[in-house]
Design brief:
The complex is a heterodimer of chains A (638) and B (473). Chain A is mainly α and 638 residues long. Chain A has helices at 9-23, 32-58, 93-116, 123-142, 146-164, 171-202, 207-211, 216-219, 231-246, 255-258, 264-273, 278-285, 287-293, 295-316, 322-343, 352-382, 398-412, 418-433, 435-460, 476-491, 497-500, 514-535, 541-548, 550-557, 562-607, 616-637, and strands spanning 69-78, 84-91, 225-226, 229-230. Classes of the chains: A mainly alpha (638), B mainly alpha (473).
């Protein structure tokens, strides 16, 4: 069983890179820090691919299901005999898949950043943080139990905070980092509450015990109800809140667009491919629990996912900052994954949604990382994030142009690109479960094609702007990752996910349902066609459309005023009517008491000095007095 | 008794042998070569320490007077490691001209006390315990008075001797009562014969005060301040770390085995003493400006925390006490090591002298900060876990209020530990202590401490290992 013990190295190598590069930051001249980081991650990537090969192919006995393997586990904290906190490495289909996703994208981002971040102050620091993030994310997916996952979950939050705030001299970057941290931290509170309720009722943190569909843990979860839902359902909803925070689901999504203040490779790594799918991973990890004991919680997951995908897609059609368009598109796509998990059932073909969600997670990681890195190359060339400053770039950035186009076709769901296959599975799963959700996703698919091609045309077509200098193609170190990811975007759709990553580990038959696929292709083509008409050549049409829907357009452009609403609630209501009185109470009553106690302690401390006179006879007196006092206590008190 | 039986006592025998060898070598070295004693002694001591880690079967000797098992061996190893670090830290002080002729005396006395402590921990009856205790105490008095012509040092020696005579008298009185009422001084026999006769309770109190004196629990602590201040700094650290640790070990063994039946009675008393010790220790520590006195008083407060584990009277209590002492040794020796290094180089011992130390000696400051954090119990360094396990053990015994008071005291201690950190990192100083290079011994000693503080915090196997050994007690 322990032939997987080496997998422990996969998270540990980035960790050591983080420690060594972080400590020697000042001494690493030039690109040395980046090269060390990239080399470390290269090894981790190799090990991950090897693990995937070993787990899915060489160790797999044909005709049997995939079982989960605990490659390594130690007891980290032994609190009581019943309550221990373990750290370990869990190998199962989804964790191996995530290993591949994380290391691939992270490795690409590491290479890409060698060019993108060149000459930035704190180049080595950037790589140290990237390694810290990779370590945390890998630790998260390999966690053997909920508590370990929570620890790494928070570490991921911290490293994301550090990376978003990388340009910490910039106030906007700094406040975006704070916002991301606070919002996700707020959601993590839900996660923690969920963990505590769940483990209190089941008596374990361990995933293997928790998710065994015939195990004691799931069987023990009936019981008490609260407000019409069972306690376990509540626990699962709370856990989902944590996942929704990290995955930027409505209404906890507000941090993601702002997080685009971080360097673009960071957005590609964290806010497209890895951290933001942690919520999906969390639900997938606990999927047997969700599907066996909390179908109501799954309903919540599905509807939140569907709503977010629609909501974000609508906003994405109006944004002009190219990274923000991508951010909203990410939210929308993660909404798909959540929806897909939400409509899934456990086992066999009923688990289509589970498989589709993971499939889409995989393909999305490839094409969204590609989009972000392509956007990075564009920003690198024109020194602006705004699509109004761009146009006609296809002449100057041929490689970026082609790869970006591939990514756009992929996300629009055009065959034979990978996005078509994974999206088709999601739509099939939704179709079998709930026609309304299916309808929403159909519409969103069209919107997605539309706003992606709006982005594409605005960047690469139209006429030239006044560029400070002629835009030039990015160096090879940046374009090679683009090409590799484009390759992944094209071909990852042919991976037999239904044989590999399924809800119960068993393979099932899956085929493309053309009754669903053909309309979805058509809707994608329609979106692209509308975008082509409106944006390929500059014309007055977009403005006219915007004007005719002016009210709706303004709301979408302002992101439906969710931020403003939060601001109003926190600043006007909570600060004024709750925080101020509490602060007053804290300053005058609590601090007053504390200062009083502190003064008293200082006073007593000053006045008992006399005891320490330096006279041994007095010491002896106190000593004997102590003995006598003890005897008296024994005789009279006890 | 065969030779192999005798080898059961390998720690004591090796240390005795070491003490003899050191004296012999010293006699044969001419005056100019006396400083060779430092590497020789430290090297040989390291060998003895390492031998202690060879696993050994549990055994009983001399009809039950001496016994050893995995836990006892671990306790001895812990003391050896601590003593080894202290020897390393003493090197630069011993090299000063004033000590040139007394190097081997220092090692000899220190090793002798360690022999006493080993016998004390391994004792199976009260006579052996008492002999070990005295063997451990009297040479320390000589060590405390090591700086002959310094009146404070002489005063420390004589005060320690007088106070310990008093406590030994009371302890012996208690042992005689135990013998009188139980008809035996063997731990195994007494445990069964204890029936809460008033005289037996009295005997327990007398025994307890004797040990309380060694661990410096309030109100039996008054000797500590003067002795700690007067004694040379490395002796102070030995007294407040190793000597205290050894006494805590034997106390917990005796409390958990011999006086187990008394537990319902003595719990409230220990409760009271724990509260007193933590609080008074803290109140005194807050006011200290001399680093030695400061660490001495703070170590009184730390001793109060040990009582929380004793109150737990369960397996976890025992484990957490051993673990706490282990962590405490590294943390406190880290702090003492820095104070000793600075004192040996510059003679400065006051907290004000440490202002701005970070700018001139960043590494020492960082280690000092680490030690302070560990002593204060800030996660994730080892001290946090040491305290956490003690608190958990007391809480599992139902002593919530005691844990609450202990947490309050930990907070107060945080205040004064941070004062040191503030002095080093924040306070401005016109003339900070100039940068200096420590010698190799000091560096190794300090690095061991830093390593201990980190590793013990993160590497849970240590706790699990101790937990495995305490099983069955």
């Amino acid at each position: 069983m322990n032939s997987y013990a080496y997998t422990l190295l996969i998270p540990l190598i980035p960790f050591f890179v983080f420690v060594s590069v972080g400590m020697a930051e000042d001494k690493l001249k030039g690109k040395l820090g980046g090269l060390i980081g990239t080399a470390g991650l290269g090894i981790a990537t190799f090990l991950s691919y090897f693990t995937a090969f070993k787990y899915f192919i060489s160790d797999h006995v044909a005709g049997t299901g995939y079982t989960s393997v605990k490659a390594f586990e130690i007891t980290w904290l032994h609190l009581t005999d019943k309550l221990t906190i373990n750290l370990g490495v869990l190998i199962d289909p989804i964790s191996v898949m995530m290993l591949v996703v994380i290391t691939t994208v992270s490795f690409m981002v590491h290479i890409y950043s060698l060019g993108y971040m060149e000459g930035e102050r704190g180049f080595a620091r950037f790589y140290a943080f990237l390694s810290l993030f990779s370590f945390s994310m890998l630790g998260l997916v390999l966690a053997t139990n909920l508590f370990q996952m929570y620890i790494f979950w928070e570490l991921v939050g911290v490293s994301s905070f550090l990376l978003i705030g990388y340009y910490y001299e910039k106030p906007s970057a700094f406040s975006a980092a704070k916002k991301a941290f606070i919002v996700t931290r707020f959601a993590d509170l839900g996660f923690l509450i969920g963990i505590l309720i769940l483990s209190f009722n089941t008596g374990t943190f361990d995933f293997k015990e928790l998710t065994n569909p015939h195990g004691i843990a799931i069987a023990s979860m009936g019981g008490a109800a609260f407000m019409g839902l069972s306690v376990i359902t509540w626990a699962l909803i709370f856990i989902f809140i944590g996942g929704a925070g990290k995955s930027a689901m409505f209404p906890l999504h507000i941090w993601l667009p702002d997080a685009m203040e971080g360097p673009t490779p960071v957005s590609a790594l964290i806010h497209a491919a890895t951290m933001v799918v942690a919520g999906v991973y969390l639900v997938a990890r606990l999927f047997p629990v969700y599907s066996q004991t909390g179908p109501a919680a799954l309903q919540v997951v599905a509807w939140v996912g569907a709503f977010t995908s629609l909501f974000a897609a609508v906003i994405a059609t109006t944004q002009t900052d190219i990274k923000r368009v991508l951010a909203f598109s990410t939210m929308s796509q993660i909404g798909y994954m959540m929806l897909s998990l939400g409509v899934s059932k456990y086992g066999g073909e009923d688990g289509l949604g589970f498989m589709a969600s993971n499939f889409h997670l995989f393909t999305h990681a490839m094409f969204k990382a590609l989009l972000f890195l392509g956007a990075g190359a564009v920003i690198h060339a024109v020194h602006s994030n705004d699509m109004n400053d761009m146009g006609g770039l296809r002449k100057y950035l041929p490689i970026t142009h082609i790869t970006f186009l591939i990514a756009c076709l992929t996300i629009a769901g055009i065959p034979p690109f990978s996005g078509f296959f994974s999206k088709d599975e999601i739509l099939s799963a939704a179709f079998e479960s709930n026609k309304i959700l299916f309808g929403i996703e159909y519409f969103v698919a069209g919107l997605t094609a539309f706003y992606m091609f709006r982005l594409y045309y605005n960047i690469f077509w139209g006429h030239d702007r006044h560029y400070h200098h002629t835009p030039h193609e990015a160096p090879l170190v940046m374009t090679v990752p683009l090409m590799i990811l484009a390759f992944g975007s094209i071909f990852s759709g042919f991976l037999p996910f239904h044989n590999l990553v399924t809800s119960d580990g068993l393979a099932f038959e899956s085929h493309i349902d053309w009754m669903i696929a053909i309309p979805s292709i058509l809707v994608g083509v329609l979106g692209i066609a509308v975008a082509t008409i409106m944006y390929k050549k500059e014309n007055a049409l977009p403005d006219k459309v915007a004007a005719s829907f002016s009210f709706f357009y303004r709301w979408a452009f302002k992101k439906f005023y969710v931020d403003e609403f939060y601001m109003f609630v926190t600043k006007k209501i909570i600060f004024n009517y709750i925080s101020r009185p509490v602060a007053w109470f804290d300053r005058h009553i609590v601090d007053g008491t504390m200062n009083g106690i502190a003064n008293l302690i200082v006073f007593v401390s000053f006045n008992i000095k006399g005891l320490q006179s330096g006279r041994v006879q007095q010491y002896a007196f106190v000593f004997v007095g102590g003995v006598v006092a003890m005897v008296l206590i024994f005789v009279y008190v006890l | 008794m065969s030779l192999s039986d005798l080898l059961t006592m390998r720690n004591e025998l090796l240390l005795t042998f070491l003490a003899m060898i050191l004296l012999t070598i010293d006699l044969n070295l001419n005056h100019a070569k006396k400083s060779w004693m430092i590497p020789i002694s430290i090297g040989l001591f390291l060998v003895v320490t390492l031998v202690g880690f060879i696993p050994q079967a549990d055994q009983t000797l001399f009809g039950g007077m001496y016994h050893t098992n995995g836990l006892i061996q671990l306790m001895k190893n812990i003391l050896n490691i601590g003593a080894f670090i202290i020897l390393l830290q003493s090197a630069s002080w011993l090299k000063t001209p004033a000590n040139a002729n007394k190097i081997s005396e220092y090692f000899f006395l220190l090793v002798t006390t360690l022999i006493g402590m080993n016998f004390m921990i391994s004792s199976g009856d009260f006579l052996m315990l008492y002999l070990g205790l005295e063997l451990a105490t009297i040479p320390i008095a000589a060590l405390a008075a090591f700086t002959h012509f310094n009146t404070k040092s002489s005063e420390a020696g004589i005060k320690l001797l007088l106070s310990s005579a008093l406590s030994s008298g009371i302890l012996l009185y208690g042992i005689s009562m135990i013998y009188g009422t139980c008809g035996s001084i063997y731990f195994d026999a007494i445990g069964a014969a204890y029936a809460n006769v008033p005289l037996q309770v009295l005997a327990f109190i007398f025994f307890f005060t004797g040990m309380a004196f060694k661990i410096s629990l309030v109100p039996f602590h008054l000797w500590t301040a003067d002795v700690y201040e007067g004694a040379p700094i490395n002796v102070t650290s030995y007294l407040s770390v190793i000597s205290k640790g050894a006494a805590a070990f034997i106390l917990i063994i005796v409390m958990f085995t011999v006086f187990k039946t008394l537990a319902p009675l003595y719990k409230n008393m220990i409760y009271l003493i724990a509260v007193l010790t933590m609080t008074v220790g803290n109140l005194f520590a807050m006011r200290q400006k001399n680093m030695k006195r400061f660490l001495a008083f703070s170590s009184i407060a730390q001793a109060g925390f040990i009582l929380l584990g004793i109150l737990g009277t369960n397996k976890m209590g025992m484990t957490s006490v051993v673990y706490f002492v282990l962590v405490y040794i590294f943390s406190n020796l880290g702090a003492f090591g820095v104070v000793s290094a600075i004192s040996a180089k510059t003679g400065k011992e006051y907290m004000d002298d440490y202002d701005g130390l970070y700018l001139t000696n960043p590494k020492l400051s960082l280690l000092m900060m680490l030690s302070m954090f560990s002593l204060a119990g800030i996660p994730p360094v080892a001290g946090f876990f040491g305290k956490m396990f003690l608190f958990t053990s007391a809480a599992s015994g139902g002593y919530y209020w005691l844990v609450f008071i202990a947490v309050l005291n930990a907070t107060i201690s945080l205040y004064y530990y941070l004062l040191v950190v503030k002095a080093m990192f924040i306070n401005k100083n016109e003339q900070p202590i100039a940068f200096f290079h420590s010698d190799g011994y000091t560096k190794v000693g300090l690095m061991l401490c830093a390593l201990g503080i980190f590793v013990l915090g993160f590497w849970s196997q240590v706790y699990e290992f101790i937990n495995g050994l305490t099983f069955g007690i």
